[in-house]
Specification:
The chain is of the alpha/beta class and 338 residues long. The chain has 12 helices and 12 strands. α1 crosses α3 and α5 packs parallel to α12.
Length: 338
């Protein structure tokens, strides 16, 4: 196996100290121009490359950010990742990606691995089942900043960026009522998700604003699997006074709900209309579109999460205020008509 050239070999050839070689390679002003040129010439001849591990150790940085997402196959999270990587790239940082695949234990193991490999910070959207926050607290003890986005845990004293779901939900309800709908259903997500509560609260507010009574049977939940999405839609179809319009937790839930509607020989947007969250690109390839989709700006969320984490990097420990400042940024959701 070919031996990797080192500073010692350059120093031996030139009969100078290793510290002289190191300074010359870094353009230190204490080293003369001739010596610097000789050092760089030999380094090129030997195909010398700096030992990044040693540099990182000295600087106490790895110039990497760990990013943990539920599932990269979802366009929402891949779009958020693009925002993170674009911002990190401008700061010459690399991104290490892990997928929790909606498994809290897997999420915890990935976080521990990233902690042990000393990433400089972590950006994460938690699983729909995450309830144990101890590993997040461990990162803080190791002075590894963590920024949450979109799916944010029910914790205080955290940095995060998320979408304010209320505006989009209220716009959707206004739109449906203008079209004559009064029985408006909601297929929501898991109860433990903050985003599910936000959707439910805005849904109730929107109906109340129009003096429409809230019918509990029109509100069903799903763990976001296809099986439960199908089951939720069948429950709504089985009602004596079934909904004429349904708002779904996201576009994937809408796709499953639409499939059930079609199996019952009902026509989308004639017999039952849909509005969904996320506004994913998938709709440009579909024939049966929802009336509208609610944009949550995943790429902007990802870029903002990256911006926040670099603010934390750029704030030296001795400049941290006695009362910590927690960065929390919201983007207003917006209904996009189809």
């Amino acid at each position: 196996m070919e031996k990797i050239p080192t500073i010692k070999e350059i120093a031996k050839r030139l009969k100078v100290s290793t510290s002289t070689v190191s300074r010359a390679l870094h353009g230190h002003p204490s080293i003369g121009l001739v010596t610097t040129m000789r050092v760089k010439k030999v380094a090129n001849e030997l195909n010398y490359e700096p030992n990044q591990t040693a540099i990182f150790f000295k600087q106490r940085k790895t110039f990497t950010i760990g990013v943990i997402l539920p599932d990269l196959s979802e366009a929402f999270f891949s779009s958020a990742l693009s925002g993170i990587e674009e911002y990190a790239g401008k700061r010459n940082y690399n991104v290490i990606i892990g997928q929790s695949l909606e498994n809290p234990d897997r999420e915890r193991r990935i976080l521990e691995t990233m902690k042990n490999h000393r990433v400089d910070g972590v950006i994460i959207s938690v699983t729909k089942s995450t309830t144990d926050y101890e590993v997040f607290k461990q990162l803080k003890r190791y002075n590894i900043p963590i920024v949450f986005f979109d799916r944010v845990p029910a914790m205080e004293d955290i940095h995060y960026t998320a979408c304010n779901l209320q505006p989009g939900m209220l716009q959707a309800i206004d739109c449906l009522i203008e079209q004559g709908h009064r029985n408006i259903g909601l297929i929501n997500g898991p109860a433990q998700l903050i985003a599910s509560k936000e959707r439910l609260d805005a849904y109730k507010e929107g109906l109340s604003d129009h003096q429409i009574c809230i019918r509990p049977e029109l509100i069903v939940s799903s763990n976001l699997s296809s099986e439960q999405n199908y089951s939720a839609m069948r429950k709504l179809l089985a009602l004596n006074a079934r909904p004429s319009a349904i708002i779904t937790f996201n576009d994937y839930v809408a796709l499953d709900a639409i499939a059930v509607v079609k199996k019952h020989n009902l026509v989308v947007n004639r017999d039952i209309s849909f509005v969904s969250f996320a506004n994913l690109p998938v709709w440009s390839y579909m024939d049966n579109l929802p009336l509208a989709s609610i944009e949550q700006f995943p790429k902007k969320q990802g870029a903002m999460a990256a911006e926040i984490i670099f603010k934390l990097f750029d704030n030296p420990i001795d400049e941290v205020p006695l009362v910590p400042v927690f960065h929390r940024v919201f983007f207003d959701s917006k209904m996009i008509s189809r």
